[in-house]
Protein backbone atom coordinates (compact mmCIF):
# COMPACT_ATOMS: atom_id res chain seq x y z
CA UNK A 1 0.00 0.00 0.00
CA UNK A 2 1.36 3.40 -0.97
CA UNK A 3 0.85 6.78 0.61
CA UNK A 4 1.08 9.54 -2.02
CA UNK A 5 1.57 13.12 -0.86
CA UNK A 6 1.57 15.91 -3.43
CA UNK A 7 1.61 19.53 -2.27
CA UNK A 8 1.94 23.10 -3.54
CA UNK A 9 2.65 25.79 -1.01
CA UNK A 10 2.29 23.13 1.71
CA UNK A 11 -0.29 25.13 3.67
CA UNK A 12 -3.56 23.32 3.20
CA UNK A 13 -4.74 20.14 1.58
CA UNK A 14 -7.82 18.27 0.50
CA UNK A 15 -7.78 14.58 1.35
CA UNK A 16 -8.78 12.25 -1.44
CA UNK A 17 -8.69 8.47 -1.17
CA UNK A 18 -8.00 6.39 -4.26
CA UNK A 19 -8.98 2.75 -4.51
CA UNK A 20 -7.17 0.84 -7.20
CA UNK A 21 -4.74 -1.93 -7.67
CA UNK A 22 -2.94 -0.35 -10.60
CA UNK A 23 -2.19 3.39 -10.50
CA UNK A 24 -0.33 5.60 -12.96
CA UNK A 25 -0.16 9.37 -12.80
CA UNK A 26 1.08 12.29 -14.91
CA UNK A 27 1.41 15.86 -13.63
CA UNK A 28 1.50 19.12 -15.57
CA UNK A 29 2.24 22.39 -13.77
CA UNK A 30 1.70 25.93 -15.02
CA UNK A 31 3.44 28.32 -12.61
CA UNK A 32 1.97 31.52 -13.97
CA UNK A 33 -1.67 30.45 -13.76
CA UNK A 34 -1.01 28.40 -10.63
CA UNK A 35 -2.90 25.54 -12.25
CA UNK A 36 -2.03 21.93 -11.99
CA UNK A 37 -3.50 18.92 -13.70
CA UNK A 38 -3.10 15.45 -12.27
CA UNK A 39 -4.25 12.70 -14.57
CA UNK A 40 -4.73 9.26 -13.04
CA UNK A 41 -5.71 6.08 -14.77
CA UNK A 42 -6.40 3.00 -12.78
CA UNK A 43 -8.12 -0.25 -13.54
CA UNK A 44 -10.50 -1.97 -11.18
CA UNK A 45 -10.56 -5.75 -11.25
CA UNK A 46 -14.19 -6.83 -10.89
CA UNK A 47 -13.06 -10.02 -9.17
CA UNK A 48 -11.66 -7.95 -6.33
CA UNK A 49 -15.15 -6.63 -5.67
CA UNK A 50 -16.35 -10.12 -4.84
CA UNK A 51 -16.63 -11.48 -1.33
CA UNK A 52 -12.86 -11.42 -0.89
CA UNK A 53 -12.91 -7.62 -0.60
CA UNK A 54 -9.51 -7.20 -2.22
CA UNK A 55 -7.30 -5.30 0.21
CA UNK A 56 -5.08 -4.66 -2.76
CA UNK A 57 -7.70 -2.17 -3.99
CA UNK A 58 -7.01 0.00 -0.95
CA UNK A 59 -4.08 1.75 -2.62
CA UNK A 60 -3.72 4.67 -0.27
CA UNK A 61 -4.33 8.34 0.24
CA UNK A 62 -3.67 11.28 -2.05
CA UNK A 63 -3.29 14.69 -0.45
CA UNK A 64 -3.64 17.68 -2.76
CA UNK A 65 -4.36 21.42 -2.52
CA UNK A 66 -7.79 22.96 -3.32
CA UNK A 67 -8.92 20.56 -6.00
CA UNK A 68 -11.71 20.56 -8.50
CA UNK A 69 -12.40 17.01 -9.63
CA UNK A 70 -13.67 15.92 -13.03
CA UNK A 71 -14.06 12.21 -13.68
CA UNK A 72 -15.00 10.19 -16.72
CA UNK A 73 -15.54 6.45 -16.79
CA UNK A 74 -13.85 4.96 -19.83
CA UNK A 75 -14.88 1.45 -20.77
CA UNK A 76 -15.49 -1.20 -18.17
CA UNK A 77 -13.83 -0.59 -14.86
CA UNK A 78 -11.29 1.99 -16.06
CA UNK A 79 -11.46 5.45 -14.54
CA UNK A 80 -9.78 8.58 -15.86
CA UNK A 81 -9.77 11.60 -13.62
CA UNK A 82 -8.48 15.13 -13.82
CA UNK A 83 -7.85 17.31 -10.81
CA UNK A 84 -7.38 21.00 -11.57
CA UNK A 85 -5.73 23.02 -8.84
CA UNK A 86 -7.43 26.38 -8.65
CA UNK A 87 -5.91 29.60 -7.39
CA UNK A 88 -5.13 29.45 -3.69
CA UNK A 89 -7.80 30.68 -1.31
CA UNK A 90 -7.22 32.65 1.88
CA UNK A 91 -5.77 30.31 4.44
CA UNK A 92 -4.17 30.52 7.83
CA UNK A 93 -0.83 29.08 8.77
CA UNK A 94 0.03 27.83 12.25
CA UNK A 95 0.80 31.36 13.43
CA UNK A 96 -2.59 32.67 12.32
CA UNK A 97 -1.30 34.80 9.43
CA UNK A 98 -3.43 34.98 6.29
CA UNK A 99 -1.88 34.78 2.87
CA UNK A 100 -2.74 33.79 -0.67
CA UNK A 101 0.59 33.38 -2.36
CA UNK A 102 1.25 29.91 -3.69
CA UNK A 103 4.82 28.74 -4.24
CA UNK A 104 5.91 27.17 -7.47
CA UNK A 105 7.59 24.20 -5.84
CA UNK A 106 5.99 20.81 -5.85
CA UNK A 107 7.00 17.51 -4.33
CA UNK A 108 5.84 13.95 -4.41
CA UNK A 109 6.81 11.65 -1.58
CA UNK A 110 6.00 7.97 -1.39
CA UNK A 111 6.10 6.02 1.83
CA UNK A 112 4.49 2.95 3.38
CA UNK A 113 1.03 3.87 4.62
CA UNK A 114 1.29 1.59 7.65
CA UNK A 115 4.11 3.73 9.07
CA UNK A 116 1.81 6.68 9.53
CA UNK A 117 0.34 7.16 12.97
CA UNK A 118 -3.39 6.98 13.63
CA UNK A 119 -4.60 10.21 15.18
CA UNK A 120 -6.80 9.67 18.20
CA UNK A 121 -9.43 12.31 19.06
CA UNK A 122 -8.56 14.43 22.08
CA UNK A 123 -10.41 13.43 25.19
CA UNK A 124 -11.56 16.94 26.09
CA UNK A 125 -13.04 17.84 22.73
CA UNK A 126 -16.55 17.03 21.64
CA UNK A 127 -16.80 14.20 19.17
CA UNK A 128 -18.39 14.67 15.78
CA UNK A 129 -21.28 12.58 17.04
CA UNK A 130 -21.87 14.76 20.08
CA UNK A 131 -21.75 17.93 17.97
CA UNK A 132 -24.14 16.48 15.41
CA UNK A 133 -26.49 15.15 18.05
CA UNK A 134 -26.68 18.52 19.78
CA UNK A 135 -27.58 20.08 16.45
CA UNK A 136 -30.22 17.45 15.73
CA UNK A 137 -31.61 17.70 19.28
CA UNK A 138 -31.97 21.38 20.25
CA UNK A 139 -32.78 22.23 23.86
CA UNK A 140 -31.74 18.72 24.98
CA UNK A 141 -34.87 17.29 23.37
CA UNK A 142 -35.32 15.26 20.21
CA UNK A 143 -36.32 17.42 17.27
CA UNK A 144 -38.70 15.52 15.00
CA UNK A 145 -39.76 16.80 11.60
CA UNK A 146 -43.45 17.84 11.68
CA UNK A 147 -44.42 15.59 8.77
CA UNK A 148 -42.81 12.49 10.30
CA UNK A 149 -45.31 9.66 10.84
CA UNK A 150 -43.00 6.77 11.70
CA UNK A 151 -41.99 5.09 14.95
CA UNK A 152 -41.27 7.38 17.90
CA UNK A 153 -39.07 7.14 20.99
CA UNK A 154 -40.73 8.34 24.19
CA UNK A 155 -38.13 10.00 26.38
CA UNK A 156 -34.77 8.24 26.26
CA UNK A 157 -36.03 4.66 26.44
CA UNK A 158 -35.97 2.51 23.31
CA UNK A 159 -38.68 -0.11 23.69
CA UNK A 160 -39.52 -3.31 21.84
CA UNK A 161 -42.66 -1.66 20.47
CA UNK A 162 -40.52 1.10 18.96
CA UNK A 163 -38.08 -1.37 17.42
CA UNK A 164 -40.86 -3.48 15.91
CA UNK A 165 -42.55 -0.41 14.46
CA UNK A 166 -39.22 0.84 13.12
CA UNK A 167 -38.51 -2.51 11.43
CA UNK A 168 -41.96 -2.50 9.88
CA UNK A 169 -41.41 1.06 8.64
CA UNK A 170 -38.09 -0.01 7.13
CA UNK A 171 -39.79 -2.99 5.50
CA UNK A 172 -42.17 -0.55 3.80
CA UNK A 173 -39.17 1.61 2.80
CA UNK A 174 -40.07 4.42 5.17
CA UNK A 175 -37.33 6.45 6.81
CA UNK A 176 -36.33 7.01 10.43
CA UNK A 177 -36.36 10.61 11.60
CA UNK A 178 -32.86 12.05 11.99
CA UNK A 179 -33.53 13.06 15.59
CA UNK A 180 -34.27 9.46 16.53
CA UNK A 181 -31.38 8.24 14.39
CA UNK A 182 -29.05 10.51 16.38
CA UNK A 183 -30.45 9.25 19.67
CA UNK A 184 -29.93 5.59 18.71
CA UNK A 185 -26.36 6.18 17.56
CA UNK A 186 -25.45 8.17 20.65
CA UNK A 187 -26.87 5.54 23.01
CA UNK A 188 -25.20 2.73 21.06
CA UNK A 189 -21.83 4.46 21.21
CA UNK A 190 -22.13 4.93 24.97
CA UNK A 191 -22.95 1.24 25.51
CA UNK A 192 -20.22 -0.06 23.20
CA UNK A 193 -17.53 2.30 24.47
CA UNK A 194 -17.83 0.81 27.97
CA UNK A 195 -17.10 -2.71 26.70
CA UNK A 196 -13.67 -4.36 26.46
CA UNK A 197 -12.29 -5.32 23.06
CA UNK A 198 -12.99 -8.96 23.90
CA UNK A 199 -16.45 -9.49 25.39
CA UNK A 200 -17.39 -12.52 27.49
CA UNK A 201 -20.89 -13.91 26.91
CA UNK A 202 -22.36 -16.08 29.64
CA UNK A 203 -25.11 -18.50 28.58
CA UNK A 204 -26.91 -20.09 31.57
CA UNK A 205 -27.65 -23.82 31.71
CA UNK A 206 -30.48 -24.70 29.33
CA UNK A 207 -30.29 -21.33 27.55
CA UNK A 208 -28.83 -20.51 24.16
CA UNK A 209 -27.23 -17.80 22.03
CA UNK A 210 -27.45 -17.44 18.23
CA UNK A 211 -24.39 -16.43 16.18
CA UNK A 212 -24.93 -14.81 12.77
CA UNK A 213 -22.26 -14.05 10.19
CA UNK A 214 -22.08 -11.34 7.54
CA UNK A 215 -25.42 -9.71 6.71
CA UNK A 216 -24.02 -7.03 4.38
CA UNK A 217 -27.03 -4.76 4.23
CA UNK A 218 -29.52 -7.51 3.29
CA UNK A 219 -32.24 -6.19 5.57
CA UNK A 220 -35.04 -8.42 4.32
CA UNK A 221 -32.92 -11.51 4.98
CA UNK A 222 -32.24 -10.15 8.48
CA UNK A 223 -36.00 -9.97 9.04
CA UNK A 224 -36.23 -13.57 7.84
CA UNK A 225 -33.63 -14.63 10.44
CA UNK A 226 -35.81 -13.11 13.15
CA UNK A 227 -38.86 -14.81 11.64
CA UNK A 228 -37.12 -18.19 11.71
CA UNK A 229 -35.32 -17.87 15.03
CA UNK A 230 -37.28 -15.30 17.02
CA UNK A 231 -36.87 -11.62 17.89
CA UNK A 232 -33.77 -10.74 19.97
CA UNK A 233 -34.43 -10.69 23.71
CA UNK A 234 -32.66 -11.57 26.93
CA UNK A 235 -34.09 -15.08 26.53
CA UNK A 236 -33.12 -15.22 22.85
CA UNK A 237 -29.82 -13.31 22.49
CA UNK A 238 -27.94 -12.83 19.22
CA UNK A 239 -24.33 -12.18 18.30
CA UNK A 240 -23.80 -10.56 14.90
CA UNK A 241 -20.23 -11.22 13.87
CA UNK A 242 -19.34 -8.13 11.82
CA UNK A 243 -19.83 -6.97 8.22
CA UNK A 244 -23.45 -5.98 8.66
CA UNK A 245 -23.06 -3.00 6.28
CA UNK A 246 -21.82 -2.44 2.70
CA UNK A 247 -22.70 -4.14 -0.59
CA UNK A 248 -26.39 -4.65 0.20
CA UNK A 249 -28.40 -1.46 -0.31
CA UNK A 250 -30.32 -1.63 2.97
CA UNK A 251 -27.32 -1.29 5.25
CA UNK A 252 -28.72 1.73 7.10
CA UNK A 253 -31.81 -0.29 8.01
CA UNK A 254 -29.70 -3.23 9.18
CA UNK A 255 -27.45 -1.03 11.32
CA UNK A 256 -30.29 0.80 13.04
CA UNK A 257 -32.12 -2.47 13.70
CA UNK A 258 -29.11 -4.05 15.39
CA UNK A 259 -28.26 -0.86 17.29
CA UNK A 260 -31.85 -0.35 18.45
CA UNK A 261 -31.96 -3.87 19.89
CA UNK A 262 -28.63 -3.18 21.59
CA UNK A 263 -30.06 -0.03 23.17
CA UNK A 264 -33.29 -1.80 24.12
CA UNK A 265 -31.47 -4.63 25.92
CA UNK A 266 -27.65 -4.84 25.76
CA UNK A 267 -27.65 -8.53 26.74
CA UNK A 268 -30.09 -9.36 23.92
CA UNK A 269 -27.79 -8.16 21.16
CA UNK A 270 -24.02 -8.51 20.83
CA UNK A 271 -22.32 -6.92 17.84
CA UNK A 272 -18.73 -7.42 16.65
CA UNK A 273 -16.71 -5.33 14.24
CA UNK A 274 -15.90 -6.66 10.80
CA UNK A 275 -13.46 -5.35 8.24
CA UNK A 276 -16.34 -3.50 6.56
CA UNK A 277 -17.13 -1.43 9.63
CA UNK A 278 -14.51 1.11 8.60
CA UNK A 279 -14.32 4.37 6.67
CA UNK A 280 -12.13 3.04 3.88
CA UNK A 281 -14.43 0.12 3.06
CA UNK A 282 -17.60 2.20 3.45
CA UNK A 283 -16.34 4.70 0.89
CA UNK A 284 -16.18 2.16 -1.90
CA UNK A 285 -18.68 -0.55 -1.00
CA UNK A 286 -21.76 1.62 -0.61
CA UNK A 287 -22.48 2.37 3.03
CA UNK A 288 -21.14 5.92 2.99
CA UNK A 289 -23.17 6.80 -0.08
CA UNK A 290 -26.26 5.17 1.40
CA UNK A 291 -25.93 7.15 4.63
CA UNK A 292 -25.57 10.40 2.69
CA UNK A 293 -28.64 9.55 0.60
CA UNK A 294 -30.92 8.41 3.43
CA UNK A 295 -29.70 10.75 6.20
CA UNK A 296 -26.98 13.36 5.57
CA UNK A 297 -23.22 13.87 5.58
CA UNK A 298 -23.03 14.32 9.35
CA UNK A 299 -24.22 10.79 9.94
CA UNK A 300 -21.25 9.38 8.01
CA UNK A 301 -18.98 10.62 10.82
CA UNK A 302 -21.42 9.50 13.48
CA UNK A 303 -21.51 5.93 12.18
CA UNK A 304 -17.71 5.90 11.94
CA UNK A 305 -17.47 6.80 15.64
CA UNK A 306 -19.84 3.98 16.58
CA UNK A 307 -17.92 1.50 14.43
CA UNK A 308 -14.71 2.46 16.22
CA UNK A 309 -16.33 1.35 19.49
CA UNK A 310 -17.44 -2.09 18.33
CA UNK A 311 -15.74 -5.00 20.17
CA UNK A 312 -13.35 -7.13 18.13
CA UNK A 313 -14.23 -10.59 19.45
CA UNK A 314 -16.43 -12.54 21.87
CA UNK A 315 -16.01 -15.68 23.98
CA UNK A 316 -19.06 -17.79 24.81
CA UNK A 317 -18.87 -19.50 28.22
CA UNK A 318 -15.07 -19.41 28.06
CA UNK A 319 -15.11 -22.11 25.35
CA UNK A 320 -16.15 -20.70 21.96
CA UNK A 321 -14.06 -17.90 20.43
CA UNK A 322 -16.07 -15.81 17.93
CA UNK A 323 -14.30 -13.33 15.64
CA UNK A 324 -15.06 -11.83 12.25
CA UNK A 325 -11.89 -12.72 10.34
CA UNK A 326 -9.61 -15.17 12.07
CA UNK A 327 -6.43 -15.79 14.00
CA UNK A 328 -3.02 -14.18 14.14
CA UNK A 329 0.20 -13.83 12.19
CA UNK A 330 2.15 -14.88 15.29
CA UNK A 331 1.69 -17.67 17.82
CA UNK A 332 1.18 -17.31 21.55
CA UNK A 333 -1.55 -14.65 21.53
CA UNK A 334 -3.57 -14.75 24.75
CA UNK A 335 -7.15 -13.65 25.32
CA UNK A 336 -5.90 -11.01 27.74
CA UNK A 337 -3.95 -9.38 24.89
CA UNK A 338 -7.07 -9.23 22.72
CA UNK A 339 -9.08 -7.81 25.59
CA UNK A 340 -6.62 -4.94 26.02
CA UNK A 341 -6.38 -3.90 22.34
CA UNK A 342 -7.00 -0.18 21.85
CA UNK A 343 -9.70 -0.53 19.21
CA UNK A 344 -11.00 3.05 19.20
CA UNK A 345 -9.61 3.91 15.78
CA UNK A 346 -9.79 2.98 12.14
CA UNK A 347 -8.40 -0.53 11.59
CA UNK A 348 -4.60 -0.49 11.17
CA UNK A 349 -2.75 -2.31 8.38
CA UNK A 350 -0.99 -4.77 10.67
CA UNK A 351 -1.07 -6.12 14.20
CA UNK A 352 -3.60 -8.05 16.28
CA UNK A 353 -6.60 -5.90 15.36
CA UNK A 354 -5.84 -6.21 11.66
CA UNK A 355 -5.49 -9.98 11.92
CA UNK A 356 -8.79 -10.39 13.78
CA UNK A 357 -10.63 -8.53 11.01
CA UNK A 358 -8.88 -9.80 7.88
CA UNK A 359 -7.32 -13.28 8.18
CA UNK A 360 -8.75 -16.50 6.69
CA UNK A 361 -8.30 -20.24 7.30
CA UNK A 362 -6.52 -22.49 4.82
CA UNK A 363 -6.29 -26.29 4.40
CA UNK A 364 -2.49 -26.33 4.53
CA UNK A 365 -0.58 -26.14 7.84
CA UNK A 366 1.23 -23.01 8.95
CA UNK A 367 0.55 -19.64 7.39
CA UNK A 368 0.32 -18.66 3.76
CA UNK A 369 -0.45 -15.73 1.46
CA UNK A 370 -3.98 -14.43 0.98
CA UNK A 371 -5.58 -13.25 -2.25
CA UNK A 372 -7.01 -10.34 -0.25
CA UNK A 373 -3.66 -8.52 -0.47
CA UNK A 374 -0.07 -8.35 0.73
CA UNK A 375 -0.78 -7.66 4.39
CA UNK A 376 -3.38 -10.39 4.72
CA UNK A 377 -2.63 -14.05 5.31
CA UNK A 378 -4.23 -17.46 5.80
CA UNK A 379 -3.69 -19.82 8.74
CA UNK A 380 -3.79 -23.59 8.97
CA UNK A 381 -5.23 -26.22 11.28
CA UNK A 382 -2.09 -26.31 13.43
CA UNK A 383 -2.39 -22.57 14.10
CA UNK A 384 -6.03 -22.98 15.13
CA UNK A 385 -5.35 -25.88 17.47
CA UNK A 386 -2.39 -24.11 19.11
CA UNK A 387 -4.50 -21.02 19.77
CA UNK A 388 -7.31 -23.09 21.27
CA UNK A 389 -4.90 -25.04 23.47
CA UNK A 390 -3.06 -21.92 24.64
CA UNK A 391 -6.35 -20.33 25.74
CA UNK A 392 -8.25 -23.42 26.96
CA UNK A 393 -10.89 -23.04 24.24
CA UNK A 394 -12.82 -25.63 22.22
CA UNK A 395 -13.88 -23.91 19.00
CA UNK A 396 -13.30 -20.92 16.71
CA UNK A 397 -16.31 -19.42 14.92
CA UNK A 398 -15.64 -16.83 12.23
CA UNK A 399 -17.36 -15.28 9.21
CA UNK A 400 -15.81 -12.99 6.57
CA UNK A 401 -16.39 -15.22 3.51
CA UNK A 402 -19.47 -16.41 1.66
CA UNK A 403 -20.07 -20.15 1.71
CA UNK A 404 -22.30 -22.04 -0.72
CA UNK A 405 -24.06 -23.91 2.10
CA UNK A 406 -24.00 -20.85 4.36
CA UNK A 407 -21.31 -22.40 6.52
CA UNK A 408 -18.18 -24.55 6.39
CA UNK A 409 -16.52 -26.73 9.02
CA UNK A 410 -12.71 -26.85 8.83
CA UNK A 411 -9.59 -27.70 10.78
CA UNK A 412 -10.75 -31.07 12.08
CA UNK A 413 -13.99 -29.59 13.37
CA UNK A 414 -12.25 -26.88 15.38
CA UNK A 415 -13.23 -23.96 13.13
CA UNK A 416 -16.60 -23.02 11.63
CA UNK A 417 -17.26 -20.26 9.10
CA UNK A 418 -20.82 -18.90 9.22
CA UNK A 419 -22.25 -16.52 6.61
CA UNK A 420 -25.75 -15.04 6.92
CA UNK A 421 -26.29 -13.24 3.59
CA UNK A 422 -28.08 -15.72 1.26
CA UNK A 423 -27.85 -15.20 -2.50
CA UNK A 424 -25.07 -12.78 -1.70
CA UNK A 425 -25.28 -9.59 -3.74
CA UNK A 426 -28.24 -11.11 -5.62
CA UNK A 427 -25.93 -13.31 -7.68
CA UNK A 428 -24.16 -15.95 -5.58
CA UNK A 429 -27.02 -18.40 -5.15
CA UNK A 430 -25.66 -19.42 -1.75
CA UNK A 431 -27.66 -20.24 1.36
CA UNK A 432 -27.38 -18.26 4.56
CA UNK A 433 -26.76 -19.81 7.97
CA UNK A 434 -26.72 -19.09 11.68
CA UNK A 435 -25.56 -21.18 14.64
CA UNK A 436 -27.38 -21.79 17.92
CA UNK A 437 -25.22 -22.71 20.91
CA UNK A 438 -27.09 -24.18 23.88
CA UNK A 439 -25.49 -24.47 27.31
CA UNK A 440 -23.92 -26.36 28.88
CA UNK A 441 -22.41 -28.47 26.06
CA UNK A 442 -22.44 -25.63 23.45
CA UNK A 443 -22.77 -28.10 20.61
CA UNK A 444 -23.24 -26.02 17.43
CA UNK A 445 -26.68 -26.37 15.86
CA UNK A 446 -26.38 -24.94 12.34
CA UNK A 447 -29.56 -23.71 10.64
CA UNK A 448 -29.53 -22.78 6.95
CA UNK A 449 -32.03 -20.67 5.04
CA UNK A 450 -32.73 -19.28 1.57
CA UNK A 451 -32.91 -15.69 0.41
CA UNK A 452 -36.23 -13.85 0.46
CA UNK A 453 -37.50 -11.22 -2.02
CA UNK A 454 -36.62 -7.58 -1.50
CA UNK A 455 -37.53 -4.28 -3.21
CA UNK A 456 -35.96 -3.68 -6.59
CA UNK A 457 -32.87 -1.87 -5.35
CA UNK A 458 -29.70 -3.50 -6.59
CA UNK A 459 -26.72 -4.26 -4.34
CA UNK A 460 -24.02 -1.59 -4.43
CA UNK A 461 -26.66 0.90 -5.62
CA UNK A 462 -25.05 3.63 -3.53
CA UNK A 463 -21.48 2.70 -4.46
CA UNK A 464 -21.64 3.80 -8.08
CA UNK A 465 -20.95 7.50 -7.47
CA UNK A 466 -17.16 7.68 -7.75
CA UNK A 467 -17.18 11.24 -6.41
CA UNK A 468 -17.59 9.68 -2.94
CA UNK A 469 -14.08 8.30 -3.22
CA UNK A 470 -12.67 11.81 -3.07
CA UNK A 471 -14.86 13.52 -0.47
Provide the CATH topology of the largest domain.
Purple Acid Phosphatase, chain A, domain 2
Number of helices: 11
User: Under the CATH scheme, which class of the largest domain?
Assistant: Alpha Beta
Contiguous low-pLDDT stretches (5 residues minimum) are: 1-49, 55-125, 133-140
Look at the structure and give the mean pLDDT.
79
Helix content: 10-25%
Strand content: 25-35%
- Which descriptor suits the 3D outline? globular
Which structural class matches the secondary elements? alpha/beta
Radius of gyration: 23 Å
Please give the domain count: 2
CATH architecture of the largest domain: 4-Layer Sandwich
Count of strand segments = 24
What gap, in angstroms, lies between the N and C termini? 20 Å
> What does the main sheet amount to?
6 strands, mixed
User: CATH homologous superfamily of the largest domain?
Assistant: Metallo-dependent phosphatases
Oligomeric organization of the protein chains: single chain
Enzyme class: hydrolase
Family: Belongs to the PPP phosphatase family. PP-5 (PP-T) subfamily.
Keywords: Cytoplasm, Hydrolase, Manganese, Membrane, Metal-binding, Protein phosphatase, Repeat, TPR repeat, Transmembrane, Transmembrane helix
Pfam family, one: Metallophos
Explain what you see.
With 471 residues, the protein is an alpha/beta fold. It folds into two domains: 2-116, no CATH class; 147-449, Metallo-dependent phosphatases (Purple Acid Phosphatase, chain A, domain 2). It contains eleven helices and 24 strands. It has helices at residues 128-136, 160-171, 178-193, 219-229, 251-264, 279-285, 287-294, 297-307, 335-339, 352-358, 381-390, and strands spanning 2-8, 14-18, 22-30, 35-43, 60-64, 67-74, 78-85, 91-92, 98-99, 106-112, 198-201, 208-212, 238-240, 269-271, 313-316, 320-323, 360-361, 367-369, 377-379, 395-398, 407-410, 415-418, 432-438, 443-449. The strands form six sheets. It has a six-stranded mixed sheet. A five-stranded mixed sheet has the order 14-13-12-23-24, covered by helices on one side. Strands 2-5-1-10 form a four-stranded mixed sheet, with no helix packed on it. Helix 1 packs antiparallel against helix 3 (178-193), helix 2 packs antiparallel against helix 5 (251-264) and helix 3 packs parallel to helix 8. The longest helix has 16 residues, at 178-193. It is globular, with a radius of gyration of 23 Å. The two termini are 20 Å apart. Residues 1-49, 55-125 and 133-140 have low confidence and may be disordered. It catalyses: O-phospho-L-seryl-[protein] + H2O = L-seryl-[protein] + phosphate; O-phospho-L-threonyl-[protein] + H2O = L-threonyl-[protein] + phosphate. InterPro entries: Calcineurin-like_PHP, Metallo-depent_PP-like, PP5_C, PPP_dom, PPP_phosphatase, Ser/Thr-sp_prot-phosphatase. One of its GO terms (cellular component) is cytoplasm.
Amino acid sequence: MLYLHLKIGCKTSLRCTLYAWCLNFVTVFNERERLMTLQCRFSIDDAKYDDDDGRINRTGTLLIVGATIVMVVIGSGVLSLTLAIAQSRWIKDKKGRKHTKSTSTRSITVQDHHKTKIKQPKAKTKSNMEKTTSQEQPNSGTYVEPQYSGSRIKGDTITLDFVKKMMNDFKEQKYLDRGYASKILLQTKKILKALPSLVDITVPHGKHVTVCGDVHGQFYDLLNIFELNGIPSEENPYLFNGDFVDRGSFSVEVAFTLFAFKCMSPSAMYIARGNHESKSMNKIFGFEGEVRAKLNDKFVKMFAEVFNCLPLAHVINKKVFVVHGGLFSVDGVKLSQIRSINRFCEPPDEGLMHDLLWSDPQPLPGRGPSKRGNRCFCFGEDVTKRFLKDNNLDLVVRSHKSMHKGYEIQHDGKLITVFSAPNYCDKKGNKGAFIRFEAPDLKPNIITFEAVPHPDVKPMAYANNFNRLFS
